[in-house]
Amino acid sequence: MVTKALKGTQPPPPERPQGAPDRRRDRRMRVFKSASILFDGGYSAAHCIVKNLALGSALLEMASVVGVPSQFELQLDGVRRSSKVVWRNDRFIGVVFNARGPVAVGP
Question: What is the pTM of this model?
Fold first, then answer.
């Protein structure tokens, strides 16, 4: 029965190979937060889940990454961050933030 429930699900992104250097500048914290990917000047949006977060980067999970551009604004907890995709697969996107600090979203 468990096998049927897991059928069609995809594994998380690949782990870093043993012995490979970790290039992350900041320590990531595991989170599970709803966020929005905004693009086309804010006229288009896609829902995502932030799986882990650092000062300069994040891991996002989506139902499908098709149509998500290589640069966008990530809106999380009332804060927008200009983001650039550094890798992706069919459900996950790894991004770096173009600026180290968050930008508050106005009312």
Answer: 0.72
